[in-house]
Amino acid sequence: MLHSRWAKLSVLTAFCLGCAAASAAGVQPEVKDLGMTPKSILIVGNSYMYYNCGLNGYLGGLIREKANPKIKTRIAAIGRGNLSQYPIAEYLDNNLLASHDKKFGQLDAGLMQKELKKRESYDLVIMQASNRGAEDQKRDAFYVPNHVKAIRAAGGTPVMLMTWVQRKKGAPAQSLVADCVTKIANDNHMMVIPVGLAFEAAQKAYPDVKFIMPDNTHPTAVGSYLMASTIYAALYHRDPTEATGFAGGCEKPLEPAVRQNMARVAWDTVKAWYGWK
Known about the structure:
Elements: H1 2-25, E1 40-45, H2 55-67, E2 72-77, H3 88-92, H4 109-117, E3 124-128, H5 134-153, E4 157-162, H6 174-187, E5 191-194, H7 195-205, H8 221-236, H9 256-274
Parallel strand pairs: 1-2, 1-3, 3-4, 4-5
Helix pairs in contact: 1-5, 1-6, 2-8, 5-6, 7-8, 7-9, 8-9
């Protein structure tokens, strides 16, 4: 038992040190352009994705206004979920759904045939990476290659989403999370979207604005809009300040000045991250 604990500690320490060593130089993204224009998007993540108006509504609205009026965006989210808990291959091929296993019995033959013909296809699958420490990053590093393989086998393009860190005691530095997530993305030859860095930049530029809820982890509506703007900028290589007409589907839409400020921070962050002119 003692040997097992030391072995686990050694592996986690090695992973942490690897990210820390990379952090000293700053891990840079290797994939700096998506290389395609998505017509359909699946976002896989946890409650960050649906909290306070939700990413899906904001992102879909931004895209439909300027980039693609027919975009299809979907979210697969589990509260407190992580990438070890999402059967992404099943999301992309209805024939693989565990619920269709014959050991559970069989639906009426005609209905079953219709079910098996259903297949959600997505040009792009965005995976929310962990924003926690070495053990969680090591877990993502293990599961992500399997998800990437499934996404590409289904004809899609995988992308990693780097979020902000929790404002809690013991939370890792944003720079460490950024480097670990970027390393995982680089190892799997995919784009990483720097939402966490946009949050960091926005908080410095607008210290009086609340981007994270009092629980110190979930986004406010402003935070959700900033996340959507950063993703929009990265995916479409477009300035999100151009989408001035979309106020969001919330009961209390954000003020135009707030939306523009967040879009500007998102665009500046994305350009700096990928080295775009």
